[in-house]
Amino acid sequence: MTYKNIIVNHWKKLLLLFLGGIFCSCEDNILPEEGSIEDLTLPEANFDYGENNNDYLTYSFSNLSSSATDFFWDFGDGNTSTENEPKHTFPQEGDFEVSLTVADKLGVESVETKTISVVQPEGPIIIVPEIIESGFEAGTLDGGTGDGNDAWTIAGANNIGLSTSVVRTGNQAARIYMGVESVAYQELTVTPNVDYRITLYYTLASSPAGGYIRLAVLGNKIEDASEAEGVIIASVYGDDQTSTTDYTKLTLLFNPGASDTVAIWLDSNNIAEGRVDDITIEHVE
Amino acid sequence: MKFLKIVLPIVFIFIAISCNKDFLEPQPISAISEEGYFKTDEELESGILNMYDGIQGINDRNTSSNHSIQYEFYLTEIRTDNTRGKGSVDSDADQAQFVNYNIRATNGIVADYYRSMYNIIYRANVVLDNLDVASEANSAKFEGEAKFVRAYAYFNLVRLFGDVPLVEKVIAPLETEVSYTRVESSTIYKLIEDDLLTAVANLDDNTKNRASKAAAQALMAKVYLTLGEYSQAQTLCESIMNPARGFSLESNFKDVFYSEGNDEVIFAIGYEPDLIKDSQGFSSEWLNAVGYTAGVNYVTAEMREAFDQFGGERTLYSIRQDVIQPSEYQVAKYIPNGDENLGISPIASDPRLAGNDWIVIRYADVLLMHVEAILAGAEATTSSNAIESFKEVRNRAGITTEVTTITKEDLLNERRVELAFENQRFFDLLRFGEAQNVLSAYSTENKYNFTSSDLLLPIPSSEINLSKGLLQQNPGY
After folding, report:
1. Do A124 and B374 touch (CB under 8 A)?
2. Is the CB of B386 less than 8 angstroms away from the CB of A193?
3. How is chain A split into domains, by residue range?
4. How is domain A142-283 classified at the CATH fold level?
5. Exposed/middle/buried for B320, CB within 10 Å: 0-12, 13-18, 19+?
6. Residues B326-365: tens digit of each pLDDT
7. What are the helix (H) ranges across A94-240?
8. Chain B residues in contact with A50 (beta carbon < 8 A)
9. Domain A47-118 is in which class?
10. Residue to test with chain A: of B101, B217, B234, B383, most A Cβ within 10 A
11. Domains contained in chain B, CATH given
C-alpha cells in the first residue's frame, strides 16, 4: 500500500482527524511562549502622604508603588482619582481610609490602605506665668500663709524688705533700704521665643540723689545670687526721684529665647529709700 | 652520607631563618604605602589634609575621577526650580537627567558623587584608625576634624540617597556585608550626631578651610533642624551668634564671595587658582562655553522672578545676563574670569582652573537657621528674636520694610535668594516639607517628569551590580 492509497482509501477518517486537530488547536494557549519568562516583579502598592501648609484639609500623596502602571486612589470620602500622585482636599475633619490599588499590564493588582486622621492643628499654646506675691501682700501663698516676700528669696543675698507705709495698692509694698543690699528673685515658667512684658511700679525718696532700682530678667534659673550678673538677658533702670510718694511705672520687654525657665531679678544701688509694688507679666502680641 | 647529615640541617635552618616577614613582604623604599606610614603627628596631619583633598575633588573630565562637590550642583541646585541646563528638555544625557527629572540608576554623575562621599569617609576613617600615633596635644583636634568630615559626607549622602551603607572604620574589599547593606537613616543620623558632638567639643574657631567648632555647631544645627529638634538647633545658632565668636555679615554682599576668608565664612572648601590639583572647574562650567560645556546651572525664569520680588541688592551679585546669549542668565557668584561692570577681577588666568572657594556654611545661613529654629515647624512666628535675625539678613540686602510676622513661606523665599546657587535649595525644600508641592508644580509648568520618588537619588547601578543583589534600589528606579 502506498501513501497515495492510504489517502484515497481513508480520506474520510483523515478529514475527521484533520478537522479534529484544527478544533483542538483552537484552545487558549496556556503554555508560555518560546523565550518568555515568569513575571517576578509583581506590582506592589505603597504610598505616603503629607499635610499641606496653610490648609489642614488638603493632602499631597506620594506614590511609592513599584512595578505598576495603573493607579486607582480611593480617598474614603466618596472621591477617587487615577492620577499618579494626586492632591486631595477632604470635606471635613475625621478619619479617612485611603486606599491605592495598583495594577500592571498583565492585570496583576496590589492594594495598600492607610488611615489618615484629618484634624485641625491647634494654635500654639502660650504660657503666661503667674507671679507669686506680685503685690507683696501677706497671706497670699498656699493656705493663706506668707509674709509677702517669701517667694522672692535667693541664696547668697538679703531678701527684699516689706513696708506698710507708702504702698500703691493693698497693705504692703516691697521696701528698698538705704545702705543695705537686698534683692528679689523669682523663677517663672515661660514659652520659648515668645515676647513678654514685665510691668512694676516704684518710687524713690527724693534724697539722697543718684539712687536707682534695677529690674532684670535672667535667662535661666540660678542657685546663688552671685550667678545673676552673668545671665541677665534684659534689664531696665528706674531712677525717678521727683516724688517720694508717687509711684512711677517701669516696663521691661524680654524674650526668653530657647529657654523655658527665666527669673525676675530686682535690686538697687541702695542709695535712696524706695518701694516697689504690683509686678505683672503679660504676653506681647 | 656524613656530609649530608651536616649540610642538610644547615640548609633547613637557613630556610627557617630566611622565612621571616621582612624578607617575604618588605616595606617598599621607593614609594610610600599606607600600611605602616602613620607614625608621627606630621604624617597623620597629611592624612587630615587628604580628607579635605577628597572634598575638593579632582578638576578634570575623566569619568572615573572623583569630582566630589565640584559636581554637587547637578544633584542639588539643578534638581530644583533654581537652575537648569541649556539643552533640550527631552535629552537623556547625564546632565539633562537632573533637569527633566529622568534620572537613571546608570547616571555617571550620581555614581561619581556617591563614590566621592564614600571616598571622603574612607579618608576620615583612615585618620580615626591611626589616631593612636597622634601626640596628646593633637589627638583630640585630629579626631574632631576627622569626625566633622565624616559627618559632613554622611549628612550629604543620607539626605540625597536615604538609607545608605554605614562604614565606621577602614574596611577590606571582601567586607561586602558592610559595603552593601543599607542602614536605616536614623542610625546614620545617630553617627552624624555623635561625630559632630565630638567635633564641637574638640575644635576651636581658628580655621575656615578646615573644620572648626563653629562649623561643627552650624552643621549640627542643620542636622537638628532636619530632624525637627528645634530647641537644640536654636541653642547652637545662638552660640555662634555670640559676638565674642567673631562672626558677622559682610556689609557688602559681593565681598562674601570675592574676599575670601571674610568674617561671614564659617566653613569653605579652599581652592587655589591655576593649579590642576587644587583648582575647581564648576565656576567655568556655569559660563557660556568657557568650561567644557556650553553652560550649565543656568538661572530659571522662576528664580529670576524670585529675585525680582525678594532679591534687593543681592540680585546684582547673584545673577547676570549672558552677554553671548542675552535671553539666558548665569550665576554671578564664583565668577572665575572677572567682570568689569561688577568690579570683579579675574581669580585665575585659566578660568577652567578656578580658585574661588566653595562656601559650605556662612553666617547668613546661621541667622536664617536661627529663625527656622524659632519657627519650629509652625506656620508663622512673631517672636522678636526671630524677627531680629531675619531683618539682619534682609537689611544687608537693602530691604528695610518693617517685619512683624515671618511665615514659613517668607523664610523659604528669603533662604532661596540669600543662599541662591549655594546648593541649599533642594535641602531647604525637603526640610520645610515643600519639596513635592514646589517641584511638581515647577515640573508641570516646564513639562518635566517629576514624581515624589525623584526626591531620592538612585543608588548607582554600578554599586548594585557589585553587591550581587545585596544592595536594594530606591523606589521608582
Report:
1. no
2. yes
3. 47-118, 142-283
4. Jelly Rolls (2.60.120)
5. middle
6. 999 999 999 999 999 999 999 889 999 999 999 999 999 9
7. none
8. 433, 436
9. mainly beta
10. B383
11. 37-203 (1.25.40.390)
